[in-house]
Amino acid sequence: MAAIRFFTGESLPLEMHKVRIVQRLDLPPIERRLEAIAEAGSNTFLLKNQDIFIDMLTDSGVNAMSDQQLAAMMKADDSYAGSETFTRLEQKCQELFKKRYFVPAHQGRACENLLSQILVKPGSVVPMNYHFTTTKAHIIINGGSVEEIPIDEALNLDSTHPFKGNMDIDKLRAVIADKGAASIAFVRMEAGTNLIGGQPFSLENIQEVRKVCDEHGLLLMLDASLLADNLYFNKVREEACRDMSIRQITEAISDACHIIYFSARKLGCARGGGMCFDDEKLFLQIRELVPLYEGFSTYGGMSVREMEAITVGLDETMDENMINQAPIFIEYMVQELQRYGIPVVTPPGGLGCHVDAMRFIDHVPQNQYPAGALGAALFIAGGIRGMERGTLSEQRDANGVEPMANMELLRLALPRRVFTASQVKYVVDRLAWLYENRRLVEGLRFVDEPKNLRFFFGKLEPVSQWQQELARQFKKDFGDSL
Fold this sequence. Notes:
Layout: E1 4-5, E2 11-12, H1 30-39, E3 54-55, H2 67-72, H3 84-97, E4 101-105, H4 108-119, E5 125-128, H5 133-141, E6 145-148, H6 169-179, E7 187-190, H7 203-216, E8 220-223, H8 227-237, H9 246-255, E9 259-263, E10 273-277, H10 280-293, H11 304-316, H12 320-323, H13 325-339, E11 352-356, H14 357-360, H15 370-382, E12 384-385, E13 387-389, E14 409-413, H16 421-436, E15 444-448, H17 454-457, E16 459-462, H18 466-478
Parallel strand pairs: 3-12, 5-6, 7-8, 8-9
Antiparallel strand pairs: 1-2, 4-10, 9-10, 11-14, 13-14, 15-16
């Protein structure tokens, strides 16, 4: 279902649910927001929730659960081993993904850790449509390297290509020819490619990737964390999928893959994760590591209540009117921002709305982290927390050289069933004001830079007094209004 067109002529996304439990929100005054971003080292990850009005940092673990998920949590079997809760989750994964084995883990990066330990060796290469931060880190820690081979359209932020998450088949063949099949640990596809704007891949593309893998005896692994959005786009954008049900598309994608892993903090609207595969040898290797790193093999570091919620959440993911909620709100937000000339990633993807910071504040050099600076500026302007997805999310190589990211994006995530259209309009309004005053925004520099995953804990400072100037302009334009 697309956005509903109203008699008045306005087009708005329509919430396919009703709200029965609410959490209070507070909007701190501009003075407190300025103090809070300084205390956080201009890193939105380090902001405290009490200082945030609209939290668009991520959709991970913050999607709204359904009444059926909450009800299911009350029947959890908390047996340490042999739990019926595990059996229900295992059976649901087998039903949807058609894989023989399911192994639980506490979240997606835990799956990456176990899979990388077993499959990645020093000198290994992992071709992928695009990397995710933790995935790349686990591969590198185990001595491997990443080869990103998306289609050329993937890095064109203004492209209208419906599947910018596709892997370039010719480039895949070239990597195999250059590196040798024996050096390739596995080929990885990511649903709803996180770092390039939540862009999906087509069913046709992943099936073509599988054919190449079969030709060379390679494993194809799918990160299905953002599969819900990808499924929606397959259904509405891909001709071959128009007459297929969401379950049928899911099965077709799964059939193309040897290994599927996911973070249930995204897929399933709960907290946890797991891995699905048919290979008994791999299953036994993975299962042996689970008690060492996660917990017993039938709960994998998750609470049984969360496992019950995942089971129901995965089943609900097969409902088109559930999985459309993030994409239609994101599309609405993108279209509203375009009305103000604000540069955003197109076509609208999943996960969130992605603002192109390099064009928004084109006077800020990339080595001063424009996406991070824009994130700090938006918090000052509206108490809105987004996430930097650019150079700040990279890390220095072994020689201390800082790689520049392909793009500098401020991601404004729209967790499923959380925000209303009026809240989205508020964010659009504050971005529009910020765009009018964008010349006030300048860059950031590190004062505390961790070696790994620095965007989580690193602290920065503004290169000038620009944050104070921005706050003064806000007071001038809005007076005592928050």
